[in-house]
Design brief:
592 residues, 24% strand, 34% helix, alpha/beta, globular, eight-stranded mixed beta sheet
């Protein structure tokens, strides 16, 4: 008989760039269940500047909530769980607290290997800061460029280029230039070099770079002009982020000693969870996951055997806000505000938000501004996602929307701290612009990534907690594809509830409306669109019937069309935003 005690109680933590979340999981009546949650600002860039300090303070709050001793007298977590009930059996951790990797790409041609490398970087916690095109001829190096690379070395240099039988001289030349640039620089400041180019160039490039750099040689991202093979580069970028960037965080070694399984990046762990959701629920049209963080925004789609994702590195609602503003005009933020706010005041509020990344809005105007930022961060990331998704499916043209998904799963502290589910739903509808019929759920306990990490240690615990405690159901969304003028015929819906009561309504184009259907309540919905709209059947005007489930918002019908077009008239636009909010939020007096 084994004396090894099974893992029953777990602290699951996610250390973000802004906030650290901790959850207590334990066996309750024979099942793993979510017990309690707490959070604390991540202690990076603060006087403590140690990720374990913020984690332990969050665990202190967890002790108060769960009425259970989790830290010993020295302030360290108690593991394993004691006979007294103190402590837990295991700790699992995910983190995206390290800044995105700054990458420079050296490539032969912009429209082949360099584009492939850029696409790979868009799926990692990485930001391309420089792109150098080598070409087939001897490259004439710009001294200003070399000075920049030397003065502010990137974290990574990615060398790509040439099909496997192509020229190698430009890559050898680039390797020699890198040696001359960094040979008298301290080893810890030299960038890691990933070579993902011409197979013929591997040996000569390795001979030049191998002694000076941390060199990683992987598969060519473009073995021939018709084939893109980014998988090895994507995996290596994820490895570098986890094993180098995260490992460099102050307090990481102490944290690693507490953990019962390897520390995963938040995005990698969330990917595991989203793929599990799609498989476990047999979702034929898949799941679309959105993670709106303080420093990054993540979009992942699990659909059949395909998993595609992108990371909006440095696009977030707090420490990533500056980059959102760099890529957006102030008008693009203001278009989502339902109240009249002068541009100067909006700029001032945004500047204050950049300076105070840990702040939580205290007024509805502040909440509206936060949700304007959420929309813009997600929109920018969704544009990248559409390009990647349709490229993967080899579409010749890039549609303005993604295909229909069975489930839209969203998470992020800015959503969790919003008390109005109607506002959460409207922001997601505006930013994601889903089509067809989809369930809308959120990660109310901020636990999905940690469950992806927990699955490595106790798969049953991850599955049971996700199934019973992982989702807050907002409801079912009906969002037809197409365009029509406001007030024109939109869709007719008929909802037959379990008690045989029937709701039937004609919903004109250009609006968002809500119909009651409670949590855990199911119904049959019949949708008959007008000639302007396609509800996902592949043809405009063709109706359909499906079984649906309710949520806090019941059934949401969005007839504003896809792609979503907002009025260019500011007052008309604000009036419409106010109308849509009133249709979704009935129990809160919002000053509009």
């Amino acid at each position: 008989m084994s004396d090894i005690k099974p893992v029953e109680s777990i602290i699951a933590a996610d250390i973000g760039s802004t906030v650290t979340h901790v959850s207590l999981i334990d066996v309750v009546e024979g099942m793993y269940r979510f017990v309690a949650h707490a959070e604390h600002p991540t202690t990076l860039g603060m006087p403590d500047n140690d990720i374990t300090v913020g984690l332990c303070r969050a665990i202190q709050y967890l002790e108060e909530t769960a009425q259970r001793r989790l830290l010993d007298d020295t302030g360290d977590p108690i593991t394993p769980e004691q006979e007294s009930g103190d402590g837990v059996d295991a700790i699992v951790v995910t983190s995206n607290a390290a800044p995105p990797l700054r990458c420079a790409i050296f490539g032969m041609t912009r429209d082949l290997s360099v584009e492939s490398a850029q696409r790979a970087c868009s799926t990692a916690n990485a930001r391309v800061t420089q792109t150098i095109i080598l070409g087939r001829r001897q490259h004439r190096w710009n001294n200003q460029l070399l000075d920049s690379l030397r003065r502010t070395p990137p974290d990574l240099i990615i060398m790509v280029g040439g099909v496997d039988t192509g020229p190698i001289a430009p890559l050898e030349n680039a390797a020699r230039v890198l040696v001359m640039t960094y040979e008298d620089i301290e080893a810890e400041r030299r960038p890691i070099v990933i070579f993902a180019g011409n197979q013929e160039a591997r040996r000569p490039v390795a001979a030049i770079l191998g002694e000076l750099f941390d060199l990683r040689v992987i598969d060519n991202v473009r073995p021939d002009i018709h084939t893109e093979s980014p998988g090895e580069l994507q995996r290596e970028l994820a490895t570098v982020y986890t094993q180098v960037a995260l490992a460099a965080l102050p307090g990481y070694r102490r944290l690693y000693g507490w953990c019962a399984s390897p520390i995963l990046s938040t995005t990698e762990a969330l990917s595991n969870t989203l793929r599990f959701i799609a498989r476990r629920n047999d979702l034929s049209q898949g799941v679309l996951g959105i993670d709106i963080g303080g420093s990054t925004t993540y979009v992942g789609a699990a659909r059949g055997e395909i998993y595609q994702w992108t990371i909006g590195a440095t696009l977030g609602t707090s420490s990533g806000l500056s980059h959102v503003l760099e890529l957006s005009d102030i008008e693009e933020i203001q278009r989502w505000l339902p109240t009249l706010v002068p541009s100067e005041e909006t700029v001032t509020r945004l500047e204050n938000a950049v300076l105070r990344p840990y702040g939580i809005p205290q007024t509805m105007d502040g909440v509206f501004l936060t949700h304007a930022i959420i929309r813009q961060a997600v929109l920018l990331t969704m544009r990248r996602m559409r390009r990647l998704y349709w490229y993967l499916l080899k579409n010749e043209t890039e549609p303005e929307t993604l295909p229909t998904f069975d489930l839209i799963a969203a998470r992020g502290g800015s959503l969790v701290h919003t008390s109005q589910d109607g506002l959460i739903a409207l922001s997601l509808l505006d930013a994601i612009q889903p089509t067809g019929l989809a369930r809308l759920v959120i990660d109310w306990a901020s636990i999905w990534p940690q469950l992806g990490a927990l699955a490595q240690l106790v798969p049953m615990a991850a599955a049971q907690v996700l199934e019973r405690d992982g989702f807050r159901e907002l409801g079912t969304v009906v969002a037809p594809l197409g365009e029509a003028n406001d007030g024109e015929q939109g869709v007719n819906i008929r909802i037959v509830r379990e008690d045989d009561t029937v709701i039937e309504a004609d919903i004109p184009a250009g609006t968002v409306q809500q119909f009651p259907l409670g949590l855990d309540e199911q119904a049959i919905i019949e949708v008959r669109p007008s000639r302007h709209f396609d509800i996902g059947a592949g043809r405009k005007g063709l109706g359909g019937r499906a079984q649906i489930r309710g949520g806090s918002l019941g059934v949401i019908v969005d007839t504003r069309g896809r792609p979503l077009r907002l009025s260019q008239d500011a007052q008309v636009r604000r009036n419409k935003l106010q109308e849509w909010l009133r249709n979704l939020i009935h129990d809160v007096d919002i000053p509009l």
